[in-house]
Amino acid sequence: MSPSATTQSSSGHASSSHASASHAHRDGTGVDIGVEKLAKVYAQAIIAAADKAGCRGQVLEELAGIVGDVLPKAPAAAGVFASPRITPEEKSAVIDRIFAGKLAPTTLNSLHVLARHERLGILPQVAAAAARLAEELEGLSQATFTTAVPLEPAEQARIVGEVEAAVGKRLAPTFVVSPEIIGGLVVRVADTVYDQSVATSLVRLRDRLKQRSIHEIQYGRDRLGTP
Questions:
Q1: Which residue, of 50, 65, 126, 180, has the fewest CB within 10 Å?
Q2: What Rg, from alpha-carbon coordinates, does the chain have?
Q3: DSSP codes, 84-113
Q4: Does the predicted TM-score (pTM) go above 0.85?
Q5: What does each C-alpha distance from 117 to 24, 55, 159, 163 come to in angstroms?
Q6: Taking Cα atoms as reference points, which of 143, 180, 178 lies closest to residue 160?
């Protein structure tokens, strides 16, 4: 990815997004919507540059490795990336010191672009947005599977396969554990929720029993009022 190409792809939106990010609000899950939108802008530029260079998979893998493995083991570097008091030039120097010669040129340049735009602090969100965008480009639909207990990989694969067959889509699954559902499964594909949890079944059963009780009471009243 050439620096000019990436800067042009991102900067046209970055300045306007900067203002929106400063006034960003959070959705019901606590996600900063402004940051997520800004991350998507950079992710689109990174994916475009990676596709042009023919190295999308490598770039995604390297970004995920930096976020998930390198930075957690190097808190000082993570602090530099996130600090507004460190200049872009200093951040670029740190990037070269840690990653030069170890990453694809596209990945390395992406980090430098984020540094120049003072956006290295949102690298985790950018990496996640890039992964989601790549999945969408490959025809995968985002899907969240919520279970009461953790599942073994084989069981996860089985469930994903069954849901894919049912909805007629290839899925990019994320598994979440939530004891509150008691048992069963809740699947969210895009904006559609398929709720087969025990908790929901109990609520439905309670509602049915409640309605039946109301009906019986009303029926009894009607009988008493019959001459």
A1: 180
A2: 25
A3: TTS-HHHHHHHHHHHHTTTS-HHHHHHHHH
A4: no
A5: 18, 23, 42, 41
A6: 143
The Cα 37–Cα 201 span in angstroms is 36
* Contact present, 31 and 124 (Cβ < 8 Å): no
Residue 116 near residue 92, CB atoms below 8 Å: yes
104 contact partners, CB below 8 Å, separation of at least 6:
53, 55, 58, 59, 62
* Beta-bridge mates of residue 186: 146, 195
For residue 221, name the pLDDT band (cuts at 50, 70, 90). Answer: low
Q: What is the DSSP letter of 67?
A: I
Residue 24 confidence (pLDDT): 46
| pLDDT higher than threshold 70 for residue 14 | no
pLDDT digits (tens, 9 = 90+) for 93-135: 999 999 999 999 999 999 999 999 999 999 999 999 999 899 8
The residue written with tokens 């499964």 in the block is 185
Sign of CA dihedral 91, 118, 78, 105: negative
pLDDT of residue 128: 92
Paired sense of beta strands 170-177 and 140-147, if any: parallel
pLDDT over 90 at 209, yes or no: no
